[in-house]
């Protein structure tokens, strides 16, 4: 499992009780895992919890479920990321173990299969970062995927942003998937 540097820093920041008090950590874990168990997904987190931190924890959670990691593997990953607060690890792992099948099902339902992807639109934005002494223009790509829900005619739009490096990785993975599909089609045709 590979995580970008910002997510790793956010997970290391979970150690710091001054940055994220115990009460807020409990609320963060409770709200994140309740997203998958309640019909009302509009539950609000307190404004003291950074949205970037929520996104990082969710990304880590999805990666753990995607790779089907057990408790020992997740704990090992925490140690690798230098998130060493054992009580906070235990709280996360308790919720992770409890909600693992539900999150796995959720991810399977949200998966995009190649035959249901209808359209991809993209645009290039420039993110301006200032530090009083210098300016950095960083290209950010916004992608909008249109897909049809499985067994229905409902149309979903999935929108996300990524850096140029992430977009190149995505493109390489899509090309790999396309070549595998072509190989499978070729093998099926030769069997006939």
Automatic annotation (TrEMBL):
Pfam families: COMM_domain (PF07258). GO terms for biological process: sodium ion transport. It comes from the Eukaryota. PROSITE patterns: COMM. Residues 116-185 form the COMM domain. InterPro entries: COMM, COMMD3. PANTHER family: COMM DOMAIN-CONTAINING PROTEIN 3. Belongs to the COMM domain-containing protein 3 family. This is COMM domain-containing protein 3. It comes from Adineta ricciae.
